[in-house]
Amino acid sequence: MAKKNWERIFLNALAETSNVKAACELATVSQSLVYKTRRENADFARLWYAALAEGYDNLEMELLSRLREGRLEDVDADGNKRKFDIGTAFRCLIAHRETVAKEKGRATLDDEIATMKSINAKIDEIRRREEKAAELEAKRAAKRDGK
User: Fold this and answer.
1) What count of Cα atoms within 13 Å lies in the side-chain half-sphere of residue 100?
2) How do residues 56-113 score in pLDDT, each as one tens digit?
3) Tell me, what's the pLDDT at 8?
4) Which one of 40, 56, 86, 88 has the largest count of C-beta atoms within 10 Å of its C-beta?
């Protein structure tokens, strides 16, 4: 499987499941490879933490939905019942709250930095245009005065 393909599958599965082992199985890669890639590739690590944050957001929404509806179990197409473990869901959310908060803070900071870079680039462009306009005006004035 191509490198980028397994990474995409892994990260999507991680966002859906919040489970590294399950995501590895879906991407058909070893856990050692994904952890090694995370250590050596800063972009992949950033995407990993973003996927986990998304996964925990999904878990939180699922938990809220089930609590509001009083739905503690599901029945699949074959009639098998699957109980949703509210206590474990809460423990997972609490255990990873700090990591998710750090990721969201980092993402917010990245957005702010990108916004500032964009604003600075626009200001620089305005300055270049003003300087060019001033140069043109100076040339016109020199021509006018030279006549």
Assistant:
1) 18
2) 888 788 888 877 887 777 777 888 888 877 777 777 777 777 766 676 666 665 667 6
3) 95
4) 56
Residues sharing a CB contact under 8 Å with residue 92, sequence separation 6 or more, in sequence order: 18, 56, 59
In total, the chain counts a number of residues equal to: 147
Distances from the Cα of 10 to the Cα of 33, 58, 72, 117, angstroms: 11, 17, 28, 32
Is this prediction's pTM over 0.70?
no
CA distance 50 to 10: 13
Please say whether the dihedral angle defined by the alpha carbons of residues 30, 89, 54 and 45, taken in this order, is positive or negative. negative
Cα 131 to its chain centre, rounded Å, is 40
User: Distance between CA atoms of 118 and 120, rounded to whole angstroms?
Assistant: 5
Q: What are phi and psi of 74, to 5 degrees?
A: -120, 155
Lookup: tokens for 90: 């809460």
